[in-house]
Amino acid sequence: MEQIITIDKILQYNDLKGVETQHPLISVFNNSESKALPNNTRMHFGLYAIFLKAGKCGELKYGRNNYDYDDGTMVFIAPGQVIEVNNPIDYEPTGMALLFHPDLIKGTSLGKHISQYSFFSYDSHEALHLSLKEQQIIKDLFTKLEYELSQSIDKHSKSIITNNIELLLNYCIRFYDRQFITRENINTDILSKFENLLNDYFISDTAQEVGLPLVGYFADHLHLSPNYFGDLIKKETGKTAQEHIQLKLINLAKERIFDTDKSVSQIAAELGFKYPQHFNRMFKKNTGYTPNEYRNLN
């Protein structure tokens, strides 16, 4: 039977992995020197976790696709997320691991900006895949954190540790930007599918049945997490997914407003607005005219 384990403390995870706890709020270790996690287990994390995997990933449940690099994979887990452990019989842990408690970064620069690292909410199949040079940079930062934890804790420890974690995450932003670029063909295909889904949403009765289109709807249909989908669209086009949806709504509204056989309320309903006044407000904000004024002007 599948076991469910809640990991709220660094000590709990370290005990599972058989590694020493040097600090109550952070742990950094070489995964190849630790035990494999219990198999057929679901783990609910109350911690931030960053894993650098070497070779094939067997420890976490992964829907592997064809990626840019096979040399290394980074996985990011945020508090509240759940992972599944399904190891093959001959699996041996590889790579490095960094876990830290949310309390570690409270009151720090990292704590104020942790939400900007949207990849903590990416799905596992949207993991970061590193070149050998990129891996070395990440390994060096892991090593610096290991060194700092091996020293006696003093008044500088917290700032040095959190600054190095922040630097590591900033490098990951850079490497994800590279990954978006090197997967240009795949991204173009996703953009095309997004545009088709957006068109179908309004051609069909979906808008009337479901309401205004949401970013999550399209991400789900494209089998992507909302954050990854949003970041991909922004990096490829310079506009957010929500801005694309809004632009589509405005253009369709402008076209349909000329159908004088339909009232403004009917057009609003066809576009997914629950209340006509919300449609009127959105239309005027974007055009400078109410729907009726726009209709009369043209």
Automatic annotation (TrEMBL):
What region holds the HTH araC/xylS-type domain? 196-297
Query: Does the record's keyword annotation contain Transcription regulation?
Result: yes
List the Pfam families: HTH_18
Query: Can the keyword Methyltransferase be found in this entry's annotation?
Result: no
GO MF terms, alphabetically ordered:
DNA-binding transcription factor activity; sequence-specific DNA binding
Which superkingdom heads the taxonomic lineage of this protein's source? Answer: Bacteria
Keyword list (alphabetical) reads: DNA-binding, Transcription, Transcription regulation
Would you tell me the protein name for this molecule?
AraC-like DNA-binding protein
The record lists the organism as Flavobacterium aquicola
